[in-house]
């Protein structure tokens, strides 16, 4: 108490250079353990809406970690030497962040029913809003991903994702329009500039290895023949005659060649009434609910499809990746 209030320093004629602050980790310890009562007894639970809730503290920590990572990236140039230095410093920073999150794991286990607190006035309708963890990218990454062995936390996140009724309705309508009630195989083909990533500095940054496998050109940027062979094999294995292609390719020649390879291959053409930002979500849901899926192993979109298929209890042997040997994918 004395150290935090500054009494110790004031007695010696010293003062804080800036306003006193507590780290989010200290705040969550305080919020989790309650406060002392008038007699000095510690551990008295907080009253409703008193103190700082666990998840609000978590938001502070995650925000700080993101800011630290952004500052690190902004401070480096684009030369080869700078990229090497960045890789080393980024690894150290991510390691420190991982250690911080490990500390929080124990707190979450000690307080499984602890919930965050809303900062709205009780009379405000927003008081009824639940806590939410919001991602600014596809939640496909975590610290344990060899052969897509998603850890328990990431699997729980994907099981908790809920798509809006409007998105689900559009997806159901798209499925009926494309295939009626027939089963289909889905494929995701990452294109539109991705060849530069596969051949150049993008994949070189990861030493041409992702998820514990040495990435070849056929895995990262498969040819029309590669795509045709993989889809025909998957359709034969599952006894299915229909296929969906989700892709960001704008190469009309390539798309025509793919249709010639697989006459039953279909794409979803979003109506003009559908917001453009809905398109990848609808395609992700179409892929996640397909009988089988073939993806691009280096793509976060394909990784998110796999995670959503896991959340729907689709067997791992119903998913494969272009150019990746059979049996490589981890079984949860």
Description:
The protein is about 45% helix and about 5% strand. The chain is built from 14 helices and seven strands. The longest helix is centred in the first third of the chain and has 31 residues.
Oligomer: single chain
- What integer value in Å does the Rg equal? 25 Å
Mean pLDDT comes to 77
The H-and-E topology, N to C, reads as: HHHHHHHEHHEEHHEHEHEHE
Shape: globular
Task: Provide a short characterization of the protein structure.
With 332 residues, the protein is α/β, with parallel strands linked by helices.
Kindly list the characteristics that best describe this protein.
single chain, 332 residues, alpha/beta, 5-stranded parallel beta sheet, two-stranded antiparallel sheet, 14 helices, 7 strands, 7% strand, globular
Topology of helices and strands:
Blueprint: H1 2-5, H2 7-10, H3 24-33, H4 54-74, H5 80-110, H6 152-160, H7 165-179, E1 185-189, H8 194-199, H9 201-204, E2 209-210, E3 213-214, H10 217-220, H11 224-238, E4 243-247, H12 252-261, E5 265-266, H13 279-288, E6 292-295, H14 300-311, E7 319-321
Parallel strand pairs: 1-4, 1-6, 4-5, 6-7
Antiparallel strand pairs: 2-3
